[in-house]
Design brief:
The complex is a heterodimer of chains A (330) and B (399). Helix content of chain A is 75%, strand content 2%. With 330 residues, chain A is mainly alpha-helical. In chain A, strands 1-2 form a two-stranded antiparallel sheet. Chain A is globular, with a radius of gyration of 20 Å. Chain A starts with a helix and ends in a 14-residue tail after the last helix. By secondary structure, chain B is mainly α. Chain B is 65% helix and 5% strand. In chain B, helix 3 crosses helix 12, helix 8 crosses helix 9 and helix 11 packs parallel to helix 17. The chains are: A mainly alpha (330), B mainly alpha (399). The interface between A and B is large, with 43 and 38 residues.
Chain lengths: 330, 399
């Protein structure tokens, strides 16, 4: 009883800090989850339903790398270093996988209705999820619940909680916000400072004109689908340590839906929109989670409100906050 | 064919003849879906047909269709547990079905009014969004039961009966345990078990729904639906207000989806969020519609039959292929193989309960290579609906 009174009086004062810290880590995660989707849709107009499943694969793959390399004797700094090794491995593996999928499966159906691209990538979800379930079971793990061993490979200074201005947060959440910032910067530089980024921006604007200027847009498609898949995997590696997510097969659908929400709210095909929407959704999620924990006894509150925001945005501005009207309006 | 299925199944699986040391009856048990699986084929088939009705004919992919199925299913269970004010638990099932349909119809109109402001990919995503809101809601709505995440069941009430309310002799109760069974029907010496009775009772409702949807598709209204799929701008230019047609089609589709869900709940007597409102329930309809033939209506039922057929073969239960192989193959064959990886290992890993994997692969293959589906391709080959062209062909051969 005293505990309740304590929280009830102490929370409102520091609630903004607590919510902001929570929101920053969520926003970072959501942006990374959604950025690959956004890049792919922006250039190719393909809505990749398999994106979440790729995140799920990334989480397992990253977890496998960590569990294989980390022993209880591994130092804390070394674990952090290995995290970036896992990021590199997973990004490379899924980029290659995504490029292969684009070449073999998606290329034949560009000239068909967009409906078939949804169907095809959705079929991939079924195959990937089931294949992952089989492999995970063979490895003696339970596919429906989080992979605790992978969570356990996180360095202690990330797993621990720290007191910040009256509230406490996990080191990991701050770390996630930092990695998210790095990823956003990297993508932004990729889009604005590299030749391929130029192709992508040009291709999103007007694919035919880009082709007419002598750019091999098909190759750009393959690269972008690969990079988008790699980003999905990277998001998975970020989630593998997070006790709120963790590597599991249902993670695929969970992250796919979040990715959709962010990408649609931001406007399909606009990276800037994705970043803004990611922050927005992160804050909505954090505020609603806070309300749920303290005041409103309804566990589905954050998800419910996130979807309501989505529906409201779609009704008020179908092209999303930063979207261009024609993109995706088939 | 489908009408006589229980008898064909009963006959084929009881054959005691054996071929090369393998009993034919057992072989049929492995490869033919059981009668109670056929009941599932019927109600999920109806759901898939309702999905095909709106998505296959207007071209708008309704990715949240599970919502309407779930509304139907939950409505039945809520009435059955006496939780809907004004409707006693013993309300006749036929009335509940219609009310469930009307409720879903209204829900579909509400969802559609918002969603049809959008097209293509956006429409698919926003309907998915609505269904997920409903999913989250139903998972946490404690009014439904003490543990809404695990779903609820109907306890106490008699079996849900299909038939004419008020006349007991014309009521047939559904269910594996609560269902009716008849011995020696009308003195013909035929016994009907609970599964068979459910099969015919559910089948009758599904058939009526199928004819109703077929009728709508061949009406002027249905023509406009196809026109919207083929070229919406042109349909609009001709003078149709396509919005109202799309909305109407969506509502009707929701109505029939809810009836599918209501039959499911009436037969199973329990519902859970993951087998009603889940994205993968929509996926079932999608698979069925694509494999059976998008925009063919009846194809969806056959598509789901194919689904259950595969699942029946790869099931872990005693009628599955894995169990059969383990029992039939000799010890020598089972332990043969490369190193650790034996035939037995292969069966356990790649056959036992793996239908979903192969189904996913087949689905992808269909999208790539057979976009018209089974029934659609057959119709292309024969040049018209099967019911018209097959008798024609047979007649030609007879001469």
């Amino acid at each position: 009883m005293t505990g309740f009174e304590l929280t009830a009086t102490a929370l409102p004062l520091f609630a903004p800090v607590e919510i902001t810290l929570d929101a920053l880590s969520k926003a970072a995660l959501y942006i990374v989850i959604a950025s690959g989707l956004s890049l792919i849709f922006g250039l190719m107009g393909v809505l990749n339903f398999a994106h979440g499943s790729l995140t799920m694969l990334g989480a397992y793959l990253g977890g496998a790398v960590m569990v294989a390399l980390v022993s209880s004797a591994t130092g804390q700094g070394m674990r952090l270093l290995l995290f970036f090794v896992a990021v590199a491995v997973v990004f490379a593996a899924l980029t290659a996988f995504g490029a292969g999928v684009e070449r073999v499966l998606i290329r034949p159906i560009y000239d068909r209705e967009p409906l078939f691209q949804i169907l095809l990538t959705f079929g991939l979800v079924l195959v990937l999820d089931e294949a992952a379930t089989i492999v995970v079971q063979l490895a003696g793990l339970q596919p429906q619940t989080e992979w605790q061993d992978a969570i356990g490979t996180a360095p202690e200074f990330l797993a621990a909680r720290y007191d910040i201005i009256g509230t406490s947060t996990r080191g990991l959440y701050l770390f996630e916000a930092l990695v998210g910032l790095l990823v956003v910067t990297a993508i932004f530089l990729f889009l604005t400072r590299t030749r391929y980024g130029l192709y992508i921006r040009a291709g999103s604007e007007d694919p035919e004109m880009t082709q007419a200027l002598g750019i091999d847009i098909r190759q750009a498609f393959t690269v972008v689908f690969g990079v988008g898949s790699g980003l999905a995997g990277l998001a998975g590696v970020m989630l593998m340590w997070d006790p709120r997510f963790g590597a599991s097969v249902p993670l695929g659908v969970e992250t796919l839906l979040v990715g959709f929400i962010v990408v649609i709210i931001g406007g399909l095909g606009s990276f800037k929109g994705t970043v803004v929407a990611g922050v927005l959704v992160g804050f909505v999620d954090a505020v609603m989670s806070w309300l749920f924990i303290n005041y409103i006894d309804f566990p589905g509150l954050p998800e419910l409100v996130m979807f309501l925001v989505l529906v409201t945005v779609l009704v008020a501005r179908p092209q999303g906050l930063f979207g261009v009207e024609e993109v995706g309006g088939h | 064919m489908l009408v006589l299925y229980p008898f064909i199944y009963g006959f084929l699986t009881s054959i005691s003849l054996s071929l090369l040391g393998v009993s034919l009856g057992e072989l049929f048990t492995v490869f033919l879906p059981r009668v109670r699986t056929m009941v599932v084929v019927l109600y999920v088939g109806l759901f898939a047909m309702s999905f095909d009705f709106v998505s296959g004919y207007t071209g708008y992919l309704s990715f949240g269709h599970a919502m309407f199925y779930g509304i139907g299913a939950y409505f039945v269970v809520l009435v059955g547990t006496g939780k809907i004010p004004g409707l006693p638990a013993e309300t006749p099932f036929m009335l509940i079905i219609v009310l469930a349909g009307v409720l879903a119809f209204l829900a579909a109109l509400a969802v559609g009014a918002v969603s049809f402001r959008l097209t293509g990919v956006y429409f698919a995503m926003v309907t998915l969004g609505f269904a997920e809101v409903a999913h989250v809601f139903i998972r946490n709505w404690s009014y439904v039961g003490s543990n809404p995440r695990d779903g609820v069941g109907v306890v106490g009430r008699d079996g849900f009966a299909v038939g004419i309310p008020g006349i007991d002799a014309l009521q047939f109760r559904l269910g594996r345990l609560a269902g009716d069974s008849f011995e020696n029907v009308l003195g013909t010496g035929i016994d009907l078990g609970a599964a068979e009775v459910s099969f015919y009772a559910v089948g009758a409702v599904v058939l009526v729904c199928y004819f109703a949807m077929q009728r709508i598709i061949h009406s002027p209204f249905g023509r406009v639906m196809v026109a919207i799929r083929e070229n919406e701008e042109r349909a609009e230019a001709v003078g149709y207000n396509t919005f109202w047609y799309k909305l109407g089609a969506f509502g009707i589709s929701g109505f029939f989806a809810a009836i599918g869900g209501a039959l499911f709940a009436g037969y199973r007597r329990s519902v859970a969020p993951e087998n009603t409102f889940d994205l993968f329930v929509t996926a079932d309809a999608l698979l069925a519609a694509i494999i059976g033939g998008f925009g063919t209506l009846a194809g969806a039922l056959y598509g789901h039959l194919f689904h259950e057929f595969l699942q029946g073969i790869f099931t872990t239960e005693s009628s599955g292929l894995a169990r059969f192989l383990r029992d039939t193959l000799s010890e020598g064959i089972l332990s043969a193989g490369v190193g650790e990886f034996t035939v037995l290992e292969f069966i356990n890993v790649f056959i036992d309960g793996r239908a979903e994997l192969y189904l996913g692969v087949i689905f992808v293959a269909f999208v790539l290579f057979v976009p018209r589906g089974i029934l659609g391709s057959l119709r292309d080959r024969l040049g018209g609906p099967l019911a018209e062209t097959i008798p024609e062909r047979l007649r030609r051969y007879r001469r």
